[in-house]
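Reader question, answered in our methods column.
A reader sent in the components of a multi-part assembly and asked whether the whole thing could be modeled at once rather than chain by chain. We filled in our standard form and ran it. Here is what they sent:
COMPLEX SIZE: two components
ENTRIES:
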Amino acid sequence: MQKEYLTIKDIYGPLVIVEGVEGVKYEELVAVELKNGDKRTGKVLEVDGDTAMIQLFEGTTGVDIYTSRVRFLGRGIQIALSEDILGRVFDGMANPIDDGPQIIAEKRIDINGDPINPYARDYPEEFIQTGISSIDGLNTLVRGQKLPIFSASGLPHNRLAAQIARQAKVRGSGEGFAVVFAAMGITFEEANYFISEFNKTGAIDRSVLFLNLANDPALERVATPRMALTAAEYLAFDKGMHVLVILTDMTNYCEALREISAARKEIPGRRGYPGYLYTDLSTIYERAGKIQGKTGSITQIPILTMPEDDKTHPIPDLTGYITEGQIILSRVLYRKNVLPPIDVLPSLSRLKDKGMGKDKTREDHADVNNQLFAAYARGKEAQELAVILGEAALSDIDKMFFDFANTFEMSYVSQGEYDDRSIEETLDLGWKLLSVFPTGELKRIRAEYLKKYLPKFKKEEAAAD
Amino acid sequence: MKQGVIIKVSGPLVVADNMSDSKMFDVVKVSDEGLIGEIIELHGDKAFIQVYEETGGIGPGDPVYPTSMPLSVELGPGLITSIYDGIQRPLSVIRDQVGDYITRGVVAEPLDRSKVWDFTATAKEGDEVETGDILGEIKETVAVVHRVIVPHHVKGKVKKLKSGQYKIDDTVCEIEAKDGIKKITMVQKWPVRVPRPYKRKLRPENLLITGQRVVDAFFPLAKGGTACVPGPFGSGKTVIQHQLAKWADAEIIVYIGCGERGNEMTDVLLEFPHLKDPKSGATLINRTVLIANTSNMPVAAREASVYTGITIAEYFRDMGYSVAVMADSTSRWAEAMREISGRLEEMPGEEGYPAYLGTRIAEFYERSGRVSVLCSGNREGTLSTIGAVSPPGGDLSDPVVQATLRVVKVFWSLEDKLAFQRHFPAISWLNSYSLYHENLEESLRNEVAPDIVETRQEAMKILQEEAELAEIVKLVGVDSLSPADRITLETARSLREDFLHQNAFHEVDSYCSSKKMNTMLKLILKLHHLSIDALNGGVPFEELAKIKVKEDIARSKYIPEDQSVQLEKIAKSAESEIEVLKRMYAQKDVVLGF
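And here is the structure of the entire assembly that came back:
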């Protein structure tokens, strides 16, 4: 029989301090019962002698000092898992909210997880074709990668994430895949958009959804991504599935973390976020990956909205230091009606080099990719110059790059939500755009590939003349 | 030894009572799970302990067992090719024990105790030996000969020493010292926070060849020197660190992955067994020790990982090797310090970092250097340290960057602007510096080319001029520049795109020998001189801008090392092409003259 304590001493913010406790462990799960029978859950943040500090996930509204009862459950927060979770919708604490039955657990797993041994990891290198040129061609995504979308309010990050979820496939493999979707503090409408997108394509049967919406308790959000990732690990490494995890919106998660930190009166780091934000985020992001000898994989696409479009804000900044690249959306491109409005230059996939090349995509991929980047960067420079001096002042070659940057944005980056391009289409499009330049300008492409691929596109041009 | 009792748990910080027997920085085992921790503060009977593993499920009343030993590493054969966590537990053994995830309380021996090594005695019975003297050798890997040296505080006469097959704990040698017979095994223990002593420091004056053109030509590092690479995320810090770990001509590499990505360590692990060292021909893993404490592994062990790494490096330095340490990233180490400091409720300094941040960073970098190591004769070893720094938002005013810049001698500044243009390595040629130019002058002239210093200065001057001219171009357009200035711009572009830009993922371009580097640089400058000369001879800029040989120069970086003849050919065709132009316009002049 667990002891029940009636010895709450202080309540402030999301925190409850209980005195006179015995045998309490750090990070233990706590149940609090209010006078009216309401139940709250929380976890131990600190134990000092016989005093325990507890953080309540659902907030402290209605908790009082004299009649609320506290029980320590002797275990951490766990999630009940079985294959039946596929196709189900849960709240942020993994309780079903789709009128379906409770999950009969095949396994109960602590949501904090243990770090994957780097020695046991397998390097991600299987190319995932998303059908989006600016990702496949320039910022190639691979299985087991964590590639966040850096967005800002008002930009179509949800549509991009849904498009990736819809179109993503590894070519030549029919292996089982699943989508785990964790919503943290997004609106009902946004969550509904994903659900209806998944419904439309039938992906819902292969999906697990964890929804903590904007009107749900904010502090639950601290647990939600961990619930989702524990479920993903189970599907990937116990059941051998390839799991795509979408986490949205990480900014809300970080804010919940800040709230707890502030309530604990910790010394704040930058912008009031706790000093351990990096460590905390890494325990989420680093759960992506592949393990040697296991078929499954976890690919993560976290979405975050940059406050004031600022990339140096602590949330995108620390995320960028942990994840393997980032896809950045641009407001300027979105205004030009470029969809998806991916800002190619600052976007990056660190694992792209392993995912491209012969036998994976095509031998010329890396070179074409480098050349497109270099040409676009130079075109952008020319555009800046033209703003000051006028287009007429550009040298002939600069004018060429100037025009290239425009065409590149309008035909390569912009493709619309329902255009699913194969990697060959993407690469050929790249060659076609590059064919306007004299061969001498294509310094980043090996001569053998120039010889092999370029004539085809030069000829087409000549024929069109 | 009496056992302590936990009274408080707050994240990685645990407070225990009844610890009056303990000393500062002693290692303790926390709870019956045996989590490893280190004492970082003592108040009366209370000890503040930073725990190197997750503390969930630990609470007041749990026991603490002192070990009375500071945090130490084991040094001996078997280090090379190993991959350790921050407190020297081999990750391969952990995996065999507990599976794919690192669970708590795992005990794993750092060195394989059952492996039998072939020991060859090099000293003789009857020799007088002291600390650091070599007793014998073991072929540890194809590339590394492990020297068994006399441990510290041992001096005397070799009584027994025989070649043969030994395990690391077997006695290989007996030394008759003043205070009795000392039995020497192949393994030593050393506390990580104490630098291993040496006789004296020497001036670093040998070039550490890295195979990276921008580094070797413009901002060279000395063997025994220190460098830092700060830059925002995505600017290629890790790629540079990996490139240096791959190609630097040090004999031993210690790579510390401190709070970084798990997949990056996997990359090294999977790639190094296949890449060949250009010098020894053996695969790179045969000279590498890896320390991996990835970002999701416990934060306190991250703090320890850099010390673990540098202590192992010092051990190899003491054998007389040139060792290079890559620490990626020291910011994560500093953040770990900050997190622990915050939990100790210390008064914070800048940005919440502890006030002793600068001291700790300086102490760490000062453990590198070119030294005359302890031994009866004369032996030299070098330890070079290259630290990556990850300042928030790439802001160089970050306290970790500033504290680092105060101690290191080479600064490779990474710029995201260059990274966006996919100019890699994104080392800014205008902001970076190396303070070793003078120290290294002789070494450079001997090993690269007799006139490399002048060549470098000229190239650097062209790049400086480009930066100034770019300002003018922004205001008034490129047409307003004189033809000579436009040639300078063209040459600068060629220097940037054809020379400084280096493709780490290209099988040939990944490593560039200093000979090839010198030839390439000279080639670009030669074309510059020829062009200026032709310009004076009446050839218009437009003609010079579109000469064919430029394309060959652009591709010269992809010419394999063994086909250097092709580089000479390019130089020849540059001469002849310009000559043709000159003759053409000289004739025109003559015609017009009539």
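What stands out: The mean pLDDT of chain B is 92. Residues 565-593 of chain B form the longest helix (29 residues).
Send us your own complexes using the same form.
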